[in-house]
């Protein structure tokens, strides 16, 4: 019998490096930027709604 070996040997460590090197810094950047973006969208919406009444 011939035992077939998986072709994904070491892929879990590559996934882990991808997670640490790309996804976590991206999450940290979005976590830092999200309150500023929400505040800006809130201000833009408030201006668009209140502009005709000024």
| Uncertain runs | none
- Content of β-strand: under 5%
Number of strands: 0
Mean pLDDT: 86
Written as H for each helix and E for each strand, in order along the chain, the element string is H
Q: What's the tally of helices?
A: 1
Number of domains: 1
Query: Main sheet?
Result: none
Shape: rod-shaped
Question: Short summary of the structure?
Answer:
By secondary structure, the protein is an all-alpha fold. The chain is built from one helix and no strands.
What report would you give on this structure?
The model has no long low-confidence stretch (mean pLDDT 86). The longest helix has 40 residues, at 11-50. It contains one helix and no strands. It has one domain (11-53). With 54 residues, it is mostly helical. The radius of gyration is 24 Å and the shape is rod-shaped.
What brief labels describe this structure?
rod-shaped; 54 residues; mainly alpha
Helix and strand topology:
Elements lengths: L10 H40 L4
